[in-house]
Amino acid sequence: MSETAKSWTKWANVFFWTAVLGVAVYLIVRNIGVVGNVLVVLLGFGAVVLVHEFGHFITAKLGGIKVEAFSICMPPTVLGIRRTRSGFKFRVLPSFSRRKEEESPEDNEATEYRIGLFPFGGYVKLLGQEDTGPVKQNDDPRSFARKPVSIRAAVIAAGVVFNVISAAIIFMVVFLVGINLTPAVVGDVVARSPAAKAGLQPGDEFLAVDGATKDLDFSNTMIAAALSGNNEKIPVTVRRADGSTFETTLVAENLGRSFREFGIDEPRSLTVAQVSKPGVEILQKRTGLLPGDRVVAVNGQKVEHHWQFNQIVEQSLTPTVDITAERKSGGQIQTVQTNLPLDWAAAENGEAPTDADLGHVYSLVPRLRVMGTNARDDSTTNDKDEAATRLMAGDIILAAGDVENPTYKELREITTDHEGELLTLKVLRTDANDVEHTATVTVKPRRAPGENRVIIGFAPALDARHAVVAKAIAVGNNPALDIPRGARIVSVNGKAVSNFFDIITEVRRWEGQPVSLQYRLDGAVEGGVTLQVAQLPQATTVRPQLGETVPFKQLERLYQAKNPIDAMAMGYRRTLGFIAQTYVTLARLIRGLISPDNLMGPLGIITVSYRIVAEQPLVNYAYFLGLISATIAVMNFLPLPPFDGGLIVLMLIEKIRGSALTDRTQGLVAYVGWGLVMVLLVYVTFNDIVRSFFSS
Fold this sequence. Notes:
Layout: H1 3-30, H2 32-62, E1 67-84, E2 87-92, E3 112-126, H3 149-177, E4 179-181, E5 188-189, H4 194-197, E6 205-209, H5 218-226, E7 234-239, E8 245-250, E9 253-254, E10 260-261, E11 264-265, E12 268-272, H6 277-287, E13 294-298, E14 301-302, H7 306-314, E15 320-329, E16 332-345, E17 364-366, E18 368-373, E19 380-381, E20 391-392, E21 396-400, E22 403-404, H8 408-417, E23 423-430, E24 436-443, E25 446-447, E26 454-455, E27 458-462, E28 469-472, E29 488-492, E30 495-496, H9 500-509, E31 515-521, E32 525-531, E33 544-546, E34 552-554, E35 557-559, H10 564-590, H11 602-615, H12 618-636, H13 644-657, H14 663-694
Parallel strand pairs: 19-20
Antiparallel strand pairs: 1-2, 1-3, 4-35, 5-11, 6-7, 7-8, 9-10, 12-34, 13-14, 13-15, 15-16, 16-27, 16-33, 17-28, 18-21, 18-27, 21-22, 21-23, 23-24, 25-26, 29-30, 29-31, 31-32
Helix pairs in contact: 2-3, 2-11, 2-12, 3-10, 3-12, 3-13, 10-12, 11-14
């Protein structure tokens, strides 16, 4: 190549990399917040990996093994430093250099310390050690292969040990600084769940879960349930809101999700959580509340806990509830009054296997109403321009397939039967002028990611705003009232009614006496029945809930050590707890008690890490890194090459046999192991993508 051509090639490379650098700088400046968060995630997760590699490095040095290179961050190498007989030798961007450097054997004796371009982890390169095949034989006495099994095993195990130590140190620092975690308090109880059967109530706090009594937070209850065996009774000690305590056992069940649970929800506070900037305006328009507002009263009754708030709402068989909140503004506390609509839940725990599980008013089941839609589902929408062919919030379901006025139980059955198929729904819709009209939409039910049920993609509620009966059901020993499906109740004891709230008001006026209900069907058929309220074991089973979502913050409590000694104890317990939980998880996974869909891969871990860094204090990310470090320690010690545990198994076999396996056998084992790891990686990455981008 001519000198002119070389010059042009050189300047072309300079121009290309200058342009790339310019674009990168522009993107970084435009998205400095995002880039900063990504950098924190990579550095944090990379530090966990680097600590693991440092364990191999320092033990290899102590064991007399030649360390050819130790790198902070991943290739390509930006800077390399090695001590030579004549001083220090530096290499800058050696991968991009065309010039081949002549190196004497003496110059290669020392370890080269490198800094890579990508800020993620690092690596150590030992003479004679390979991760992807058999150990390379070498005559150098400092070769990994020439060292006795005890030293090689110590070097391999050191990475795991350092991860355990680093996890404990991270937790110690976290608890010394203090971290806000969700306490082991019952926020709500799912109907007919194990928690409900055991008599747990909102506001109850766990003092002991499966023998653990120290530093309990809500995750202890979730993990105990998810990792329990079939029909295993988990002993718990519970303290009631009044201070009394009792002991009971809980048997976790599958409640529609891919993991076992007790049926308790996380506790919430009375403070409105932060939302996105566009969401603030929407929140205020719909609820009159702003992030940071704290609810202090409901319907004039003071509340101090979220479960008290829920109790009052659930007892309010009225169209709306009055909310009083406090708002900090300009150093002053303002009182905010607002009024929120109520909806009735279609079923208490999202399932209604029998008619008896349906919410009813005096044995009358209202029609189904779309309370909210999932923006990610193709069958639903919040955009009025798309509503002609898709479900939207406020729609009342008049028919699903051939079934008119389906109950929640019937809609669940129809949805399951039409999985992956088109299903026609007839709905009653209110337009912008408050005029009702019918519409026909087509939906395609799908199986919800991570759940064992088929869904359309909307939150169902009962239509309390019309006095239309979807179905009259038998309650206890009382037969169903002779009211046709789709009939509209027009009066109670001669008093006109227009919705279910009116029905409740009028029936209560007669204090349990028999009342006459008059109905009309299709504007032509009329009839009447007598309602024996006193004979009903439960007059109403509908469960009111807020019709407009208010995002309350999770209840948090400060977990902080009293002194460094206490921090060490807390860090030690937390590290051992996570290690034990990881082993139990793997055991339950092998026995089929835990779905592999719950596994999370690198993509999922990075996604969760980014959300924590972007939305929570830095100490929460440190806590997460401690969890990851403890988990990596366990995973790396699995007896399967290429994991460290698998390499130690091969060394034990060598110790027992008196000689190592043949290179061919070692290579085969390594490649099979890598194949299994790659299959698992593809599987968990697919799950991570589904969870991150396609789940509800």
